[in-house]
Each structure stands twice: as structure tokens, then as C-alpha cells.
Design brief:
Distance between the termini: 51 Å
Number of helices: 8
Bound molecules: S-adenosyl-L-homocysteine
Order of helices and strands: EHEEHEHEEEHEHEHEEHEHEE
Helix content: 25-40%
Strand order of the largest sheet: 10-9-8-11-12-14-13
CATH class of the largest domain: Alpha Beta
CATH architecture of the largest domain: 3-Layer(aba) Sandwich
CATH topology of the largest domain: Rossmann fold
Strand content: 25-35%
Radius of gyration: 19 Å
């Protein structure tokens, strides 16, 4: 196998089984190198859904149509190990849901990187934001906030409901001059929107180096200058030594990760620490039935719900820092 190739593991399923397979793929191949950047075809971590039917938002419709769930692993021993775990997991799932054997094949890296483009068209979000693939020339109104994106392998095109919920929340909660941080920036979409809404300084972090590269390129594409007072992009998660610095923070990851970030499971500091007193934290990537778990974590850190938005099964919660929990 050559560099620039990936192993695609695909299984054709319907209805309920699709969710189970997505969960399985995410469990074994979730946060790693292959993000759900197929944008719009994606549902959580490492699973990509391709359906013969799509809804108005470009999301695959599961159930009524034929659905293929795919994931991609890098060649090499680690990828092989993930592939084996997935195959074993699927074998177990077949006891519950009848489904065919998974099909594994080698694909070119670029195929994966470009697969999502088929469904990616300009789209309006909230009142003024127009997200557009960099290669399209949409009609622009004078008041539009146009954000041009080429996400590459990073997540965040606006095709996923979680991104749209965040963009709409930013329009309502970011005021010009606010300091803003975006943890898990992916393509950089939220930071670019915030900067265009007048926020500054804007900080964007992501643990994935591919996301950092995509975010930098997208910032340039949108004429946003990089630097400490404008847009600062760094690889990582929650920065230390920034207590109370940001008036608005957004994190569009997944419920479990948000809870870990709030409770300081992964980093030395809680996601609540860099938030200013009376500042707002936008938490997104939350499946409806996981909202309680995120809300109680938020409450543990002095954060109170002030806004809640939903699209399909996905929720975004806006919480305000009402109490300083003594972060230095
Ligand atoms: N903000 C974009 C992308 C969200 S996808 C949008 O709203 O569309 C989630 C991103 O979080 C991914 O790019 C992933 O690499 C990153 N991520 C996952 N866990 C993280 C962590 N613990 N800290 C920082 N970033 C993380």
C-alpha cells in the first residue's frame, strides 16, 4: 500500500442498524486521524453515511433509503488493528441486526478528501451568514457575511447541523469587540464567522494538525490576518494561563468530550476557566438525549443555561458564567 492511500471499510445497512454501526465506527475510529470531514455525509467521529436520499440540509436520510456507513483507516499496523476491532464489532452486531459482511477496499486519500464536495453548496445560516465552498460564486447581498471555505480533511463546512447551530448562536451572542475562543476549530469556520462579526482577539485551537492547516488556509482565504490581536490559531485544546480572558467561547465537539473538557479530564484546566465572568459558552455537538449530562457538567462549573437551539437530533446549549469558581 502506498502513502496517500486509505482503507475504506463499508457496510450497507438500514434503519436502526445504521445508528449502531455509526456508533461502532466512532468508538473504534472516532477521534483519531480520520475525522468526519466528509461533511454532511458524516455523523459523529469516524463514520460517514452515504444514502440514496438526502434531506433539505444535505444530511443523509436513514431508514427510508439504502444507507452505506463507511469509515477510513490509515494503512499500517494501527489501522489494521482498528480494522480488526471494527470487523469483530460488526460480527457481534450481526447477531442483533441482519446485515451483509463489511467490504474493505483501498482508496486514494484524495477520493476521501473530495467525496463531500458533491453535496457542498453555498448556504445561508441565521440572518446574514453565507457559507460557501471556495470554488462557488454565489449571489451575495450587501449585508451578507460571506465565509469561503475549503475544509480539506477538517470538519466544518456548515453541512452538519452542529456547525449551523453554532453559527446561528454566534450571530446572537457575539458582539463586536468581544474576545472569542473556538476549541476544536476544524476548518476554522466558527472563528472566521466570529472575526467577521467583529470579535477580537479570536483564538482557535484543535488537537488535529490537519485542522490547524485547514483553519490557517481558510483564514487567509477570508482575508483574516493571523496574529495575537487578530486571529491566533494553535494546535492544542484549552490553553492554560488564560483565566477569564474570553467573553465568548464555542466548542462544537461531542457531549462526552465537552463533559471531559469542562471537568478537566483531558487538560489541566476546565473549559470554564478561560471564560470571562458573565461570558457565554456555546456548547454544541450534543445529541438530544445527552443534554442532561452536559448541563450537569456545566452546572458544576458555575454555568447557567441561557439559550438552547436544536436541529434534528442535535442540540447547542448556550451557558453563561454566573459564578467564578475561583479559577486563578
Ligand atoms: N468548530 C468546527 C469543527 C467541529 S468538529 C465546526 O463547528 O464545524 C470538532 C473538532 O474538534 C475536530 O476538528 C477535532 O479535531 C477537534 N477536537 C476533538 N477533541 C478535541 C479536544 N479535546 N480539544 C480540542 N479539539 C478537539
Amino acid at each position: 500500500m502506498n502513502a496517500g492511500e486509505l482503507v475504506e471499510i463499508a457496510v450497507e445497512v438500514d434503519g436502526e442498524a445504521a445508528e449502531a454501526v455509526v456508533e461502532l465506527f466512532n468508538r473504534f475510529n472516532g477521534s483519531d486521524w480520520v475525522e468526519d470531514s466528509a461533511a454532511g455525509e458524516a455523523s459523529g467521529g469516524g463514520a460517514v453515511l452515504e444514502s440514496t436520499g438526502y434531506d433539505d440540509f444535505g444530511n443523509p436520510v436513514v431508514g427510508e433509503y439504502k444507507t452505506v456507513v463507511k469509515t477510513y483507516v490509515k494503512p499500517g499496523p494501527r489501522g489494521l488493528r482498528i480494522q480488526r476491532q471494527i470487523e469483530e464489532g460488526l460480527w457481534r452486531l450481526r447477531l442483533l441486526y441482519p446485515m451483509p459482511e463489511p467490504v474493505a477496499r483501498t482508496v486514494k486519500d484524495e477520493d476521501w478528501a473530495h467525496a463531500w464536495k458533491r453535496h457542498y453548496k453555498p448556504m445561508r445560516i441565521g440572518r446574514r451568514v453565507l457559507l460557501t465552498p471556495a470554488w462557488e460564486e454565489p449571489d451575495v447581498l450587501p449585508e451578507d457575511i460571506v465565509v469561503r471555505l475549503e475544509p480539506g480533511m477538517a470538519f466544518g463546512t456548515g453541512l452538519h447541523p452542529t456547525t449551523r447551530l453554532c453559527v446561528a448562536a454566534l450571530e446572537d451572542w457575539v458582539r463586536p469587540g468581544d474576545s472569542f475562543m473556538d476549541v476544536g476549530t476544524g476548518s476554522g469556520v466558527l472563528s472566521i464567522v466570529a472575526a467577521k462579526l467583529g470579535a477580537g482577539p479570536v483564538w482557535a485551537t484543535d488537537i488535529d494538525p490537519l485542522a490547524i492547516r485547514a483553519a490557517r488556509e481558510n483564514a487567509a482565504r477570508n482575508d483574516i490576518s493571523l496574529g495575537n490581536d487578530a486571529l491566533h490559531i494553535e494546535q492544542g485544546s484549552i490553553p492554560e494561563g488564560q483565566a477569564g480572558r474570553f467573553e465568548v467561547i464555542a466548542a462544537n465537539i461531542l457531549a462526552e468530550v465537552l463533559v471531559g473538557l469542562l471537568d478537566g479530564t483531558y487538560e489541566k484546566v476546565s473549559l470554564a476557566e478561560p471564560l470571562a465572568l458573565e461570558g457565554h459558552l456555546i456548547l454544541s455537538g450534543i445529541l438530544e438525549d445527552k443534554s442532561e449530562m452536559v448541563m450537569s457538567a456545566a452546572a458544576r462549573h458555575g454555568l447557567k443555561e441561557v439559550d438552547r437551539r436544536q436541529e434534528a437530533d442535535w442540540l447547542a446549549l448556550v451557558v453563561r458564567k454566573e459564578h467564578d469558581m475561583g479559577y486563578a
